[in-house]
Write a structure and sequence with these properties.
pyruvate-formate lyase- activating enzyme, 19 strands, 6-stranded parallel β-sheet
Amino acid sequence: MKNKVGIVSLGCAKNRVDAEMLLAKLDKTKFELVEDVAMADAAIINTCAFIESAKQESIEEILELAKLKDEGKIKCLIVTGCLSERYQHQVMEELPEIDACVGIGANDEISEIITNALSGNKVEKYPPKESLNLEGERIQSTPQYYAYLKIAEGCDNHCTYCAIPMIRGKYRSREIDNLVKEAQWLADGGVKELIVIAQDTTYYGTDIYGKPMLAKLLEELCKIEKLKWIRVLYCYPERITDELIDVIAKEDKILKYIDLPLQHCNKNILKLMNRKGSTEELTQLINKLRTAIPDITLRTTFITGFPGESEEDFQELAQFAKDIKFQRLGCFAYSQEENTAAAKLPNQIDDDVKNRRAEIIMEQQQLIMEEYAEAMIGKEVEVLVEGFDKYAECFYGRTKGDCPEVDGNIFFSAKGIKPQPGNFVKVRINDFIGIDPVGEMV
């Protein structure tokens, strides 16, 4: 009888793609894959360790599964991903419940690692980060109609607050041909929305082609007939080229949605973050984007309470967010991550101040989102159906301006019709609840 293996993947979509590749490797071996990790003989926790809250979530998940191991429901626990890569031997020392702790470079060896752990051995392996294979088969874990395409690994930006370069290593782009083949395979399997991801998508190609190639890659992906929507995330503002803007503007399949992780707008704070720009420069870029792509949805993230952020610096950020009126915005209190340059900066800010500043930005954004929702009343929008909400007793889905897992939904009635997840329908908006538009299928 085959041993059962299940996986829990935490953190970002890039980590999810790694988990899908792990599943494909295991599917070719002597193991049986199970969706419910509580039913597995071997449980893999693909961890996140980007900021303190992500580390805590990873540790809590490990401890929850350790309880099932104590009860005899799970035979062994295997920890992979960013937590084990970042802290290595320390993870096993602090959490002796773990049977195997391995770095990202050991992903190709996952079958042997599980076999060894099931035999009663404690396993630790931390090959070079660069050993993480970027090519290979995947078992899609998202709903059939959307999937992520990870175009690169690692990061060369070295933002002072960020641990990603030390966890994931240098930026490594994948070849365009390989990406197009994978996207075609996903489309053939039923994917209608392809979400292009990397730590910085706008840096794509610089390392292997000598220049940014995101625009070229997007043009090639648009040739795949079965894809309807192509969404691009994590575009750094200083690398938004005229060529990229033109491609997004002209290609119908590319959603007019750009994720710009700005983090701040104050010139001095951005410099301390090892980021570029200023309120004036970022405003110019956003005006340029909105002029070239009039119906664009802009998403961003901000960090409040970065070391040295004065009350005046914060007020500049709050005013910037109020003036720009981003359609989508997330704000997070600064997390002081050990071994990052920012952790050693003077003028660290009290947690209460950091958190209150983040709350102020989000309270302000709530009002902006309500304005956008109200402005949608009377309009007809295209919606990708995601399911039926039995509590609200209506269907829900996403527009072109809503990315899965990070943005909101539209709720709608369908008058006796039952649209299936993955269908595209037209919805007339007639109200909103909170910030979620509500309507009826037409």
